[in-house]
Request: fold
Amino acid sequence: MLWIFLIPVFLLGIITSYEDIRFGKIRNIFTYGFFALAIIMNVFMFVFYSIIGVQINYFYFLNLLINILIAIIIAFAFWWIKIWSAGDAKLFIAFSALLPLTFYSNNPVKYFPSFIILINTFVPLFLLNLIGVFASSFKTIKHIQIKEIIPIILIIFGFSWFSSSILGFFGLPSNYITNIVLIYLLFWIIAKISILEKYKLVFLIIFCIARLILDRTIFTLGFWKTFLLITLGFAFFRIFLRKSFDVLYVKHIAISKLKPSRVLDKSIIKSGKKYIIDNEKIKQKDYLVEATSEGLTRSDINKIKRYKKKLAFNKIPVLTTMPFAPSLFVGVIITIIARGIFINLI
Reply:
């Protein structure tokens, strides 16, 4: 009976992918509507099984509810730190509610099986982009500075201490790749939260001192081998790839050619008597236009044009983004076929 859920899953994926490609947005009528449909279908299934006398697996529905709640929290967090637009976040929640837990059976993840959808979405997308990244590698290396490496060393030393515990809590394997991804995510969250970003160095030093005092494993050869590999991997993700993506996916366009929904690479903020482009965290009143995953509005564009004489630049860096709904839909399809992580298909 659970196979019937695939009908709305594919309908939602096809409709939202088309709309995201054609119009650049995902309408609430589909995300809210299919989420409500998922709830109705699960309630109907529960009642139907009760009526016909089929033994009900209460833990299934409890785990499904927990999965949906965590998906809502993760989606909200991704929207809040500007990784996703609101439409992308709501689409992920709808897919998490619609897809039965049996389709994660080959790689069950405790509490949050929809994490597999994220893996099957982002990893193939990352590998696809990696081809272009390596093509721009020589342009990137010359822009890397030593001062960018020091915070990375402190982050790895301080955070890797408990990353394995977090992975274990969710039933995920602890290895070089998963630790790098988790630490990168923590680093990203810190960068997006103003208070944490402001006192980042203080937090890192406290974590590092605590580890020096309490963790005896740092005096072993095995620790330094792991530390070196994770640091190199994280540095690759954080610096090399970020700068390569800038080369590939950041385009500088004239103010006269700005259009609604264009996503700014960095915010436009006040600096003295001029407005500059920067990602620095400032008071809300000092923003001319803040970079958000939702993109520019008509009002934002008019404001930029109105302050044109006070701008310290002639062109604005915007992201040459690709619609995310099709990528997320592909991640869901991979999950259904592999009944877990895409590696099962290899």
Residues 251-319 form one domain. The first strand starts at residue 250 and ends at 254.
